[in-house]
Specification:
alpha/beta, Aspartate Aminotransferase, domain 2, seven-stranded mixed beta sheet, four-stranded antiparallel beta sheet, 10 helices
């Protein structure tokens, strides 16, 4: 993580409240200055009381009730002029994530608060498909999306939506690492089937295992093959963990081959659901600017369109409450608990996989009874057949006491 912090710092509760209410004060009040042309309003006052006394000390809930629409991308071009205060907060969140967590240069990135990692991943694939078609004259049949077999289901979903070929590379069952021989074979097979351009998705914390792909292996193989590519990092789970547990250079904007990153704030960060983050180097977002959105100031380059400004406020409030040092301590505590769990499993002779910088532990299914997995709400790798793995995710609510109880019952 960047050591020189420009925007991300620890603020007091009062400082956070003052800043958010100032931002809300610089957004449109639908009742004080009733607009005639906007197809939206604040939350219905008959149901959601906008003058409840507790709201004076509840900036996030106040933002929810004011119902700011953050349609569009606010890091380039024009934005809707009605909500500048919270647009500014969203831009700060983008900069903190791109520059201070993922080591990017100042003002070198675009991005927005998406609905989650799924949308952010689809946005990336959409942008790069259009990039190759516009800049290289590529046909969709000449573009393939390359990922590991452990990639999130949003990657095949993106390919289905965008009519692109998806090719996945097998991973080692024990280490969850990409198979280099299979990677080379996959690229050669794609080339033999007229693939000329690649959209590469590298995992920074897979959903099931918390495993981390080697960017170098992926990009070196494509450079050796001589094919153009764009590299996207799916950090939906690991993005707020991995950068705080060691060196992140290869999986950040410090790596010139990395073009975009997807994050989720509604996982480890504990923001409300619907708070993903999409980050991308400048000069690429415009490839999905929707010219038909003429009634939207600055058009729209996001997948989702209208979205709540309160979600940006929520992420900003959480980040500023902790600051970089406080967040590192929070993540360190999760890693300590995960270390304890893994040590206990080793002592018991249990088989499991865990990336040492992540807070996910995947146990072999034959090590855990179905009854115990159900009681402790472990998640299997498949629900429709016999699972091979069950995972434990050490989140804020997963205490040492709860882990001790699980290990004790495991036997």
């Amino acid at each position: 993580m960047n050591e020189v912090n420009q925007l991300w710092k620890t603020l007091t509760r009062e400082q956070i409240k003052t800043r958010v209410f100032d931002a809300i004060g610089r957004t449109l009040d639908f009742y004080a200055s009733p607009p005639l042309g906007l197809p939206g309003s604040s939350l219905d006052p008959q149901v959601f009381c906008g003058d409840a006394p507790f709201l004076r000390d509840a900036p996030f809930m106040s933002a929810m009730i004011r119902n700011m629409n953050h349609i569009g991308c606010h890091t380039f071009g024009e934005s809707e002029p009605h909500f500048p205060g919270t647009h500014e907060i969203e831009r700060e969140v983008v900069r903190i994530c791109a520059e201070e967590i993922f080591l990017g240069q100042p003002d070198a990135h675009d991005g927005y608060i998406a609905s989650g990692g799924t949308e952010a991943n689809i946005e990336a694939v959409w942008i790069y498909r259009n990039f190759f078609q516009t800049e290289h004259g590529a046909d969709a049949s000449e573009i393939a999306v390359l990922s590991s077999a452990d990639a999130h289901y949003s990657i095949p979903k993106a390919c289905n939506l965008l009519a692109l070929r998806h090719v996945s590379v097998p991973v080692d069952e024990r280490t969850r690492e990409l198979d280099p021989d299979a990677l080379g074979s996959t690229i050669r097979e794609g080339q033999a089937e007229a693939v000329k351009y690649w959209i590469v998705v590298a995992n920074l914390g897979t959903t099931m295992f918390g495993s981390v792909d080697s960017c170098e292996m992926l990009t070196d193989a494509l450079i050796a093959a001589g094919d153009p590519f764009k590299l996207h990092i799916d950090a939906a789970f690991g993005g707020f963990v991995y950068p705080f547990t060691g060196d992140t250079t290869a999986l950040s904007f410090a790596n010139p081959r990395v073009d975009s990153i997807a994050l989720d704030a509604h996982k480890v960060v504990q923001a409300p659901y619907g708070t993903g983050i999409f980050l991308i180097r400048k000069g690429l977002m415009q490839h999905v600017s929707t010219a038909e959105a003429k009634y939207v100031t600055g058009l729209d380059a996001t997948l989702i369109g209208s979205r709540s400004g309160a979600n940006a406020v929520a992420i900003w409030m959480i980040l500023m409450t902790y600051g970089p040092d406080g967040w590192r301590e929070k993540v360190g505590e999760l890693i300590d608990r995960t270390d304890w769990l893994c040590g206990s499993l080793k002592e018991a002779g249990r088989q499991f996989y865990r990336h040492p910088r992540m807070n996910v532990v995947a146990l072999r299914a034959d090590e855990v009874s179905r009854e115990l997995a159900s009681e402790f709400l472990l998640v299997p790798d498949v629900h429709s057949a016999s699972p091979r793995w069950y995972k434990v995710v050490v989140m804020d609510h997963v205490t040492h006491d709860r882990l001790r109880e699980f290990v004790g019952r495991l036997g």
